[in-house]
Description:
Elements (H helix, E strand, L loop, with lengths): L8 H20 L5 E3 L2 E3 L11 E3 L6 H4 L11 E4 L11 E12 L13 E2 L3 H12 L11 H4 L3 E4 L8 E8 L2 E9 L4 H15 L5 E5 L1 H9 L3 E11 L3
Parallel strand pairs: 3-4, 9-10
Antiparallel strand pairs: 1-2, 2-3, 4-11, 5-10, 5-11, 6-7, 7-8, 8-9
Amino acid sequence: MITDSHATPFLTAAVHNNADWCDAVCRSHGVEGTIEGGVWASALRTPPLYPDAVTLSPAATPDDVLPRIDLSSPGASVKDSFGTLDLSGTGFEVLFDAQWIYRAATDPAPPRAGDWEPVDGAGRLLAWEAAWSGAGESEGLFRPALLDAGAVFLTPAATGPVTAGAIAYPGAGAIGVSNLFATDDDLDDAWRSCLEATDRLWPGVPVVGYEHGDDLAAALRQGFEPVGPLRVWLRTDG
């Protein structure tokens, strides 16, 4: 766990839950990360959209990160969980800045909106990913092994077209929500439906994640609070 005084319990939960989720996705692809020196990192290139390293302490430095990831070609990425690293002189550029978010377990659940339920089975998971991607097809990023690892892929109905959804992942004393989407772009309704589902499935457990832009604004409207900045770096020089 993070012990640095700059990391609040809310931020600690969000960072560690997300690192656990990244590790689960990587392991489902046969890529194993390890934790050392306040950093989770993989020596092998991770699946698309997932970082090669995640800092777990605001005291982590570039020297704690860079020797542990593959820098032989462009494309490596680092999730700077506290926005404290400067990788600008090492071939990396800022991909985006975001905010960790936290919603207390004591906050009342939204009224039941979309009757979201967990995806059941590999076939439905493929349909979920196809809808989430926006391309109408799945490339196998989210593999069935994740269902056995505790990940819950939420969607409005057990059958029929997938029109909205999110991933909920329990860990570090919280439920991490990511990849929330709605094909009609109604993010407020999607968040309400998602939060009703997480409260029903995991009563009394806080919800965490990170967002930026319009996605962050929608989350804040549904009762989340920002608890700290993060930055994702992408290596464009190799």
